[in-house]
Design a protein that fits this description.
With about 325 residues, this protein is of the alpha/beta class. Helices cover about 50% and strands about 10% of the residues. It contains 14 helices and five strands. It has a five-stranded mixed sheet. β2 and β3 form a beta hairpin. α3 crosses α4 and α5 packs across α6. One of its GO terms (molecular function) is nuclease activity. Its cofactor is a divalent metal cation. It is found in: Cytoplasm; Nucleus. InterPro entries: HARBI1-like, HARBI1_animal, HARBI1_dom. Belongs to the HARBI1 family.
Length: about 325
C-alpha cells in the first residue's frame, strides 16, 4: 500500500478520535433572554427583567475571556442564577448552557466576587434620621412594636468537612461543619447587615460582640433598637424576650420579637450557599429582588425544609443590669 495512503488513513482516524473526545458543545448555546418571561422564570426562578437588571449592573466587570470559550455577560449571569437559585449541581447547569462544569464553577466564582464587592451599595443600615424613622415605622406596622430598627440572629450554613488544621472549629453543636452567619433584617425582610467570617462553633453573641455594628450602636449611631433571641444579652440597644412573662402584653412582645426573625431566616436559608463570598452575593440578589418586587419565595417552601435543619440551641445569656432596666422601662412606657 502506498505510504501516503497510510498516512492519510491515520490522519482520518485521528480526526475521528478528536471528534469523539471533544464534541462541540458550544453550537447549542442560545441567548436565554430570548425565552418568554414564563420560561425564563421557570429556568432561573427570577423574571427576565430581574436578569437584565443584574446583567446591566455587572456588564462592565464581566468582560470576555479571550482564551478558550468566551462567555457573554448574559450567559455568565444566568449560569450563576441557575446554579444558586435552583440548588442545581454544576454539571446540569453546564449541560443546559453548552459549557463545561469547570467553566460554570469559574463563572459562579467570578459573579460572586463582583457582587460581593458591590455589597455596600445594597446591604446597609439606615443612616439618616429619615431612613431610620421609616424603618421603625414599618416595624411598628407589623405588631405595633415601637422603636425597632432591625431583627438580628445567626444561622448555620453547612460546609464540607474541613480537614485542615483548625477544622474542628467549624463543627457546631449539632455535630456538622458550618459557617455561622449573622444577619440583621428590616421589616421588609431586606438584609441590612451581614457577617460571614465565623466558624460554626462560635457563639452568636461573640459574633455580635466583635462586629462593627455593635460599636456603632454603642456610639449612638442609631435611634432605634435591635430585637434578638435569648442567645444575646439584653442591653439598652438590643432587646431579648422575657423568659417568664406574667402579663398578656408581655406575651405579645415575645410574639413580636419572634416573628421577624423566623421569616427572614427562612429567606436566607432559601437563597444562601456555602462559600462566604457567595453568601454575600446571594444576599445582594435577595435585596435587589425585594426592591424589584420579585417573588422571593416563589413556591420554594419545600426546598427551605430540605436545606434547613433543627435550630441550634444557644445557651442562655444573662441580661445586663442596664439592659434589664431599659427593657422594663420600655414595657412600662409602651405596653402598660
Amino acid at each position: 500500500m502506498d505510504i501516503n495512503m497510510i498516512d492519510l488513513m491515520d490522519l482520518e482516524d485521528l480526526d475521528m478520535l478528536e471528534t469523539t473526545r471533544r464534541p462541540d458543545r458550544h453550537r447549542h448555546r442560545v441567548n436565554p433572554f430570548e425565552l418568554s418571561d414564563e420560561d425564563f422564570r421557570y429556568k432561573y426562578r427570577f423574571s427576565k427583567r430581574f436578569g437584565e437588571k443584574i446583567v446591566g449592573i455587572l456588564r462592565e466587570d464581566l468582560v470576555h475571556d479571550p482564551r478558550g470559550c468566551p462567555l457573554s455577560p448574559e450567559i455568565q449571569v444566568v449560569c450563576a442564577l441557575r446554579n444558586w437559585a435552583r440548588h442545581e449541581i454544576q454539571d446540569d447547569t453546564a449541560d443546559l448552557h453548552g459549557v463545561s462544569q469547570p467553566v460554570v464553577s469559574r463563572t459562579c466564582k467570578k459573579v460572586a466576587e463582583i457582587l460581593s464587592r458591590k455589597s455596600r451599595e445594597f446591604i446597609k443600615m439606615p443612616t439618616t434620621l429619615n431612613e431610620q424613622q421609616e424603618t421603625i415605622r414599618k416595624f411598628r406596622s407589623i405588631a405595633n412594636f415601637p422603636t425597632i430598627i432591625g431583627a438580628i440572629d445567626c444561622f448555620h450554613i453547612r460546609v464540607k468537612k474541613v480537614n485542615a488544621d483548625g477544622g474542628q472549629l467549624y463543627i457546631n453543636r449539632k455535630g456538622f461543619s458550618s459557617v455561622n452567619v449573622q444577619v440583621v433584617c428590616d421589616a421588609d425582610l431586606k438584609i441590612m447587615d451581614i457577617v460571614t467570617r465565623w466558624c460554626g462553633s462560635v457563639h452568636d453573641y461573640r459574633i455580635f460582640r466583635e462586629c462593627r455594628l455593635k460599636q456603632r450602636f454603642e456610639a449612638g449611631a442609631f435611634s432605634g433598637i435591635l430585637l434578638g433571641d435569648s442567645g444575646y444579652p439584653c442591653t439598652p440597644y438590643l432587646f431579648t424576650p422575657l423568659l417568664n412573662p406574667t402579663h398578656h402584653k408581655k406575651k405579645d412582645i415575645i410574639g413580636a420579637i419572634s416573628v421577624p426573625g423566623t421569616q427572614w431566616k427562612e429567606v436566607c436559608l432559601e437563597i444562601l450557599k456555602q462559600q462566604k463570598k457567595t453568601i454575600v452575593a446571594c444576599a445582594v440578589l435577595h435585596n435587589m429582588a425585594i426592591d424589584m418586587r420579585e417573588d422571593v419565595f416563589s413556591g420554594e417552601r419545600d426546598s427551605i425544609e430540605q436545606y434547613s435543619s433543627e435550630p441550634i440551641v444557644q445557651r442562655y445569656i444573662a441580661p445586663s443590669i442596664r439592659g434589664n432596666i431599659r427593657r422594663r422601662q420600655f414595657i412600662e412606657t409602651h405596653f402598660q
